[in-house]
């Protein structure tokens, strides 16, 4: 690895300034030789903020940024419809590229972006940072521990109540809507859980609760071989939270409540005949009677520690030493195809059962 690894950010808005700058210009990566050479944004006000308030160099144009030989890697943190142009121009200039999610507007765009990376011999990946979310790893580790027995249902839910933030995210032409915004993260996580399992079908419903042209919420049910159902729900018109994660195994249940990873596993320790009828509203039920303490155990969740700086370090290693990317373009191709199938499923109200999934 070289001592100095020059990076640049194209698009200095919420994500470029508020997130990537803090990593690429921050102490953790700085100590490893990462240097933010500068930024470019089409909005002069964003360039002014960089120079005057953040002490970050703003290039005079994208061309000037791409011509800077110190820049080995760029992050494209522009609206979704701008990803293709910014990324392919950077690749043609020989830069390693991190594209923000959702990387392409279509499978065809992604195919061309991958082709461009290959033709120019550069590294190309996507910022699927939520692969490092602590809640995701906490659940993944709990499933792997076997405490739930065979897992047959995973529910992953994310809720807001204020609709889609009021900018390009509300416009179809810019790649707006919740499937592309949050769906891509939650599908990327689902793909990690279901590695090696064949996707058999999906069914998606979209919501337009706030009345715009883009989906402001959706549900999707993905069915995998071996009997696993993976359910994802994103809403922006919800005022009572449900748990972030619910996992059903044959021997236990997991609930993870929130981003702090509060939650628990309750699992069966033995099978005894402890079911006695209880009064449930106006009826009696034995089926729904809670278990007695003797046959179950409650285990607190072991909160996972993660370090998202691994993502940038991996991309640098791929650029400098040919290391294998953590976020692989073929994985992005799969989630892109799934999102396209979701739009079709919702539009035509059908279950989709055929997927191409070309690596
Ligand atoms: N990975 C995550 O967790 C995460 C979170 C939020 C946003 N994002 C993604 O980051 C990207 C940017 O989102 P945002 O919230 O920062 O948007 P934003 O609107 O806050 O910022 C986008 C910036 O890009 C600039 N811009 C637009 N077109 C440009 C171009 N052609 N060249 C240079 N600059 C250009 C705009 O002027 C603006 O400053 C999107 O793809 C979004 O999906 C990812």
Write the layout of secondary structure elements.
Blueprint: E1 5-10, H1 14-24, H2 27-30, E2 34-40, H3 44-54, H4 62-67, E3 71-76, H5 83-92, E4 96-100, H6 107-120, E5 124-127, H7 134-144, E6 151-159, H8 178-193, E7 199-207, E8 217-224, E9 228-235, E10 245-249, E11 252-256, E12 263-268, E13 278-280, E14 283-285, E15 296-300, H9 309-321, H10 329-348
Parallel strand pairs: 1-2, 1-3, 3-4, 4-5, 6-9
Antiparallel strand pairs: 6-10, 7-8, 8-9, 10-11, 11-12, 12-15, 13-14
The chain binds nicotinamide-adenine-dinucleotide.
What share of the residues does DSSP label as strand, in percent?
15-25%
Report the radius of gyration as a whole number of Å: 23 Å
Beta strand count:
15
Helical stretch tally: 10
**Helical percentage:** 25-40%
Contiguous low-pLDDT stretches (5 residues minimum) are none
Q: Walk across the major sheet and give the strand order.
A: 7-8-9-6-10-11-12-15
What structural category do the secondary elements indicate?
alpha/beta
Order of helices and strands: EHHEHHEHEHEHEHEEEEEEEEEHH
Bound ions, cofactors and other small molecules, one mention each: nicotinamide-adenine-dinucleotide
Categorize the overall geometry.
Answer: elongated
Mean pLDDT: 96
Q: What does the main sheet amount to?
A: 8 strands, mixed
Distance between the termini: 29 Å
List keywords for this structure.
alpha/beta, eight-stranded mixed β-sheet, 10 helices, 32% helix, elongated, binds nicotinamide-adenine-dinucleotide
């Amino acid at each position: 690895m070289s001592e100095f690894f020059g990076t640049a950010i194209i698009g200095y808005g919420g994500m470029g300034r508020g997130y990537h700058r803090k990593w690429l210009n921050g102490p953790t990566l700085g100590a490893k030789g990462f240097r933010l050479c500068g930024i470019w944004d089409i909005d002069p006000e964003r360039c002014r903020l960089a120079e005057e308030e953040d002490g970050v160099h703003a290039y005079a144009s994208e061309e000037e940024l791409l011509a800077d030989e110190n820049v080995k890697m760029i992050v494209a943190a522009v609206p979704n419809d701008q990803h293709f142009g910014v990324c392919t121009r950077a690749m043609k200039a020989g830069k390693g590229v991190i594209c923000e999610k959702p990387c392409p507007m279509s499978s065809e765009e992604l195919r061309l972006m991958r082709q461009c990376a290959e033709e120019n011999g550069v590294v190309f990946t996507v910022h699927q940072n939520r692969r490092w979310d602590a809640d995701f790893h906490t659940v993944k580790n709990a499933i792997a521990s076997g405490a739930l027995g065979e897992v047959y249902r995973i529910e992953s839910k994310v809720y807001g109540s204020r609709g889609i933030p009021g900018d390009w995210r509300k416009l179809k032409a810019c790649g707006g809507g919740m499937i592309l915004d949050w769906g891509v993260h939650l599908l990327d996580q689902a793909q990690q859980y279901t590695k090696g399992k064949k996707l058999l079908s999906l069914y998606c419903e979209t919501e337009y609760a706030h009345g715009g042209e883009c989906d402001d919420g959706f549900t999707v049910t993905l069915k995998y071989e071996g009997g696993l159902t993976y359910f994802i729900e994103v809403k922006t018109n919800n005022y009572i939270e449900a748990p972030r994660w619910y996992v059903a195994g044959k021997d236990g249940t997991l609930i993870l409540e929130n981003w702090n990873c509060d939650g628990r596993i309750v699992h069966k320790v033995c099978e005894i005949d402890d079911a006695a009828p209880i009064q449930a509203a106006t009826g009696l039920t034995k089926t729904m009677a809670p278990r007695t303490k003797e046959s179950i155990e409650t285990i607190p969740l072991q909160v996972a520690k993660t370090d998202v700086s691994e993502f940038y370090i991996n991309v640098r290693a791929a650029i400098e030493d040919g290391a294998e990317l953590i976020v692989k373009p073929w994985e992005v191709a799969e989630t892109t195809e799934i999102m396209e199938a979701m739009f079709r499923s919702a539009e035509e109200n059908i279950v989709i059962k055929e997927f191409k999934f070309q690596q």
